[in-house]
Amino acid sequence: QVQLVESGGGSVQAGGSLRLSCAASGITFSGNTMGWYRQALGEPRELVATITSVGSTDYADSVKGRFTISRDNAKNTVSLQMNSLKPEDTAVYYCYAKKMWRTYWGQGTQVTISS
What we know:
seven-stranded mixed β-sheet, four-stranded antiparallel β-sheet
């Protein structure tokens, strides 16, 4: 059974930092592209950051220079360091794992940024 479990969400003031983590089980972690999406209330889900199996990264323009995605294949975890947070970063953040045609999702963790 595949499980992606996010942690690290919470509430901080604008300008603050949070670090999200996602622990994966039930998949060959190192072979999957991992990443984070987010969904604000009333908005479509949007891609935030991805990291491939070989460590290539990509970011949404809105988070470039502020967010950093990383992975630890030995621990089957992917992390998202979020700095200089803005109120518009408020959303539920979802971890995902993708390999070929299969995509798995975590249940999400709430991030709330107050001004």
